[in-house]
Specification:
By secondary structure, the protein is mainly β. Helices cover about 15% and strands about 35% of the residues. The protein has a domain at about 115-165. The longest helix has 10 residues, at about 65-70.
Length: about 240
Amino acid sequence: MQKAIIGKKVGMTQIFDENGKVIPVTVVEAGPCTVTQKKTVETDGYEAVQLGFEDIKESKLSKPEAGHLKKAGVAAKKHLKEFKLEGAAGMNVGDEVKADTFAAGDMIDVTGITKGHGYQGVIKRHGAHRIDMTHGGGPVHRHAGSMGASSHQSRIFPGKIGAGQMGNEQVTIENLEVVKVDAELNMIVIKGAIPGPKGGLVYIRNTVKNNKVKQADTGISKNPQKASGRNPQKASARG
């Protein structure tokens, strides 16, 4: 069953596993979220649910937002997000989605808005090299440099690195592992880093990647380049 929840990034820390190995983790305050709308194939052409997160004063919502939530019969919510889930048909308006929807060991994708760094040059934004500080470099040590010939092509090709807005983009980190879930504190502990600053909004859902468990075959090799593959009887007798 597909699962999803809205949360808020608390920050990063580290924990220790059973073997004493340190694990860098990100703590997320996930939910509780309320189902504020349900999409069906009959009425909308697809199945999905809209989740609301974080209570807010109704006076801080626009009239369309407040009317939408009143129609659903739920409290005013600051954040709304729609998720297409296979099990959406089994959910109803007013249902709560809590952190214990996920469990330790689940593989998830986390989407968030990265930290904004403002207008930056090519060195910080793209990791470009600067000009040497010696031999008459002049005041152009961190400039972008030549952009190309003026005769042909007489233009800059799309994708050319340059200065501009850095960060403040929606980014999804795939295939992260849930290390711990605390239902009482609405806490999900995720292995590794996730996008966004402290207090940033994040969306958590099942990973889209197919995680296959690799099983090592200790038997006879099927590779014809190996001796055991060319002569399996000899390999089995040797074993």
